[in-house]
Write a structure and sequence with these properties.
- The structure is a single chain.
- By secondary structure, this protein is an alpha/beta fold.
- The chain contains 20 helices and 21 strands.
Length: about 550
């Protein structure tokens, strides 16, 4: 049975009458209007409702640059009901309009106020991004229906005041181990937007594949984007078996631009990751002189950590990386570039004359300080280009680069240490947010890397460690869920592992901590997954089985 069959068939077998996304005709519209995820900060239900019909107009201020949001809303309503509403650049009228407004009195730029009355709808945001998130909430207030049969949409009268708890709300995808097509990347970005997350961390280079076209170095995609075969079964199983099939792919720069623009239209910033100095075998296979030994190297065919990394003693390595980063910067307008920095063995550096000469010339203590030198040198170059680095928590070893942001993945210790050093932190502890971990008993699940991470565990995660004082906690920008794809080879499997666990983290990062209640969340989730069904997302349904009595 394949992953899609596992996800879709098992819940039907066990609880057909309770399948999420299926609603009886008499379902109460007023009650459903309260089932919003992430849960808003303030929400008051009012009497009555407003009906969006063919004569409804969308009114927005052209001066506030809300055309993007207005077009998005127009397309959304058309997709839900077949309504193609007229756009007007003017002040919102009193009747039969949906008004989009930027209100400078809303302090949080991502905050919004949504009002639905019997006369119309207004969405005010602290910025265009706040208006966009108000639209996402309106999306959940729309009636649950199939197709475009209804030419009107009735919306419960309500007033919502809302803003995110954390500024950074991220979802990651590793396309190095397994490659995913552009159309899926766009669908992934749509789901990020639906969840009011704002960052897509795109892991583009790995030992097993280089996925981004770099025009100055064509061998990176000619050689580095393909491996001769792929491991079958789990990495820990011996002897290892391989499928004998060439595998790979990459994104052209035109495709990258297309995806970046698509994300910007949905208020999602993309952070590209170019791994260094480790996880670089695909690059070394393409240009062997970049390593300490000169090779021969080959693109990795199994998973794990490899001794072959970029040589820290050769200036040619830094020239290469600066050239690569120049092309990356031109493609991605965000201020952050992720440079990895994790799992970089020092074995070859210890035996490399050029690395040892670098240690001596720079007055470094050891290979850990050599890695710090490597990261700081790359950071200095990126700062000269008005970009900032993010690195995994190993970049703490040997001393942090001056302006670095730390992603704490080996638990929270690295993030706590970085915050105490007054560095920005994004929490990504594997125990709480690694979505490649099993979410149910392994014998009933497709192959995964290991670990165990349930929906409830993620929902109960708190990104602000209580070991930090209030001033230190200000350096915690937010958190991110990571989807590593050693064992995730298809889009169906990626969706199955990601949702609704990412949905739980979305509420953790957006909603007030005091309002968090897992039982309440699962009840609202039953309504929310209607939107996943509409998008044909192959989400996991374990929680609906486990909580069938409550749901």
């Amino acid at each position: 049975m394949n992953i899609k069959q596992i996800s879709r068939f098992l819940p039907v077998l066990m609880m057909f009458s309770l399948l999420p996304g299926c609603f009886s005709p008499e379902e109460n519209r007023e009650q459903r209007s309260l089932n919003i995820i992430p849960k808003p900060g303030e929400m008051v239900k009012k009497e009555g409702s407003f009906t969006i019909n063919r004569k409804t107009t969308i009114v927005f201020s052209e001066n506030e640059s809300l055309l993007k949001e207005a077009n998005y809303l127009t397309d959304l309503l058309n997709e839900y009901s077949g309504l193609k509403l007229k756009l007007i650049t003017d002040n919102p009228k009193d009747k039969n309009t949906i008004g989009l407004i930027v209100n400078s009195n809303i302090v949080n730029p991502e905050g919004y106020v949504l009002k639905v009355t019997e006369n119309g709808i207004t969405i005010e945001g602290g910025s265009p991004s706040g208006v966009f998130y108000g639209i996402q909430t309106l999306r959940q207030l729309l009636p649950h229906q199939t197709g475009k049969a209804k030419a009107k949409l009735q919306v419960q009268s309500i007033e919502i005041k809302d803003e995110p708890r954390f500024a950074y709300r991220g979802l990651h995808l590793d396309v190095g181990r397994h490659f995913f097509p552009v159309e899926f990347i766009k669908e992934y970005i749509d789901l990020i937007a639906l969840h009011k997350m704002n960052t897509f961390h795109w892991h583009l280079t790995e030992d097993q594949g280089w996925r981004i076209e770099i025009k100055k170095y064509p061998e990176l995609t000619k050689v580095g984007a393909f491996r001769k075969e792929t491991l079958k079964g789990h990495w820990g199983k011996k002897p290892r078996e391989y499928d004998g099939e060439r595998y790979g792919g990459f994104y052209t720069q035109e495709e990258i631009k297309e995806v970046v623009n698509y994300a910007l239209e949905r208020n999602v910033t993309i952070i590209p990751e170019i791994e260094m100095p480790g996880h670089s075998l695909a690059a070394l296979a393409s240009y062997p002189h970049l390593g300490c030994t000169g090779g021969p190297y080959e693109v990795a065919t199994h998973w794990g950590v490899f001794n072959d990394v970029y040589c820290a003693g050769k200036d040619s390595v830094f020239i290469f990386l600066e050239d690569v980063l120049d092309e990356v910067i031109a493609l991605f307008p965000g201020k952050y570039i992720h440079i990895g920095g994790d799992e970089s063995p020092k074995h070859n550096w210890k035996e490399c004359p050029e690395c040892q000469a670098r240690i001596k010339a720079e007055g470094l203590k050891d290979e850990h300080e050599l890695q710090s030198y490597f990261i700081k040198r790359i950071e200095a170059y990126l700062l000269s280009k008005d970009r900032y680095i993010i690195g995994w928590d190993e970049i703490l070893e040997g001393g942090l680069a001056p302006e670095a942001t730390v992603m704490s993945w080996r638990g929270e210790a690295g993030g706590i240490e970085a915050a105490k050093q007054n560095h920005n932190v994004i929490m990504t502890p594997n125990k709480y947010v690694y979505l490649d971990y099993y979410q149910a008993e392994p014998e009933n699940e497709p192959l995964a890397i290991g670990g165990f991470l349930t929906l409830e565990t993620i929902y109960n995660y708190e990104p602000l460690p209580d070991t930090l004082n209030s001033e230190e906690q200000k350096y915690i920008l937010g958190a991110q869920a990571n989807v590593w794809t050693e064992y995730i080879s298809t889009t169906d499997y990626a969706e199955y592992m990601t949702f609704p666990r990412a949905t739980a983290l979305a509420e953790v990062l957006w909603s007030p901590k005091k309002d968090r209640d897992f039982n309440d969340f699962t009840k609202r989730l039953k309504s929310f997954v209607y939107h996943l069904d509409r998008l044909d997302v192959n989400y996991a349904k374990h929680v609906f089985i486990e909580n069938k009595e409550e749901l």
